[in-house]
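Q: May I have one protein plus its fold?
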Amino acid sequence: MARAKKGNAAREAEGNGQTEKQIDPAILARPRLLVVGDGLSALGTVAAAVLANWRVTWISTGTARVLSPAPVLDSVSVAGGGAAGTFALLAEKHGVPCGLPRPVSAVREFRTKAFREPVWMKVADTDARRLERDDSYWIPETRFIPTLAIGFDRPLGEIERDLRRVLLAHDAVERIETGSTPICGLEMSPAGSDSDETVRVVLGSGQKISGRRLVYADRWSKLAAMDGLPKPIPFARGRQPSGLLQVGFTHAAPEGASGQGLEFVLGVHKDAGEEIERSLVGYFYDGGRSSVWTLALAPEELEDNHLIAKKLRRMKQSLEKVFTGEEWCGPALEGSSAQGSRDLLRTVSSEHVVFEEGAVFHAGEAPVKPSVLNSHRAFEFLTDGYGPSCSLVQVEVWIRSTAPELLLSGLQRSESSEVVLEAVADAVSEPSVSNAFAPGEGLNPSAQA
């Protein structure tokens, strides 16, 4: 049986026979939106829907959740900063401060014993720069390495985490966690039905969850096995889904003082016979008390648990080798047994490892709007498979098509925010913007730059 988690106005949990307090009748009267998924596109949709006066049933399918692999967005992918601005305003409206987006020089690549701005960033023309970037990294890694970065006052993963906490506690949000029970079908009532709730998510247990509309923002690779949908799913074909391996660290004290706000890209040792040149992508957040590091995997590697464990060891070895010394790890804590030069892993107080299948696409064009089926117009499909920037573009288009009142009233933009958003758009369209944000010397992991 699916497990329901309630917000502040907690409703009666299934089977416990207790009610903390009654939900506001005004919220109960709202139309219900079903949102399936737990990534950034689902998060943005829930945030917007609550502001648009929907009652949201947020369904998590038990899929491991990867935190945003990048701390910044790609202005080339977020329509000149518009989607980034909309996300910032959504977060601020829910009481999650993040500041308005702005162009930043964030990517640092480890080469010649220091972190430096990648060579491809020196290309002024944005299209040419994107081509150079694409030639520099493995395809799935380009989903998280921006051609021209847009950043907030805080790393994206930190904003994402805090916004999630707020929404899960919201009275208009009902959380349902299906656990090991899969979604086995999506249903829609025939035209002319008298019911206001015309869409249903069908669980393997037989339970049906009904609503007015459905936003499916989970793994598209799962759709082929669901009843009620055409086969094959036209928009899901040819995308070559694969997985991400992510490790998050909590540090005993703030670390990475030289790299706050930056996205680090470093190589990972190749094993014998391996052909793929991989990069590890990560960043510090919470003022250096946390960090997160992500590695893409090939489709043929997803079933090999021994190989996945080996990749995790390689990730940690890369971090041990690169992030050493007081600049990155601070002085040894009093009473510590660590002697000499410290590395990042010696500062870790806890870690969390996530492996997520189908989390990134190797092929296909990134969608610029929600995907739909002509036979199921009440369903809309979003994906996180092309990285966080693409996710937010789909969310913004969903707002414009489904809840345009948000951009007219629900997301009232102040005069100052409009000025900043216009400045971001102007900066993104200016070919010389990269020079305006060019860094100085490279960041050396073992000596102050």
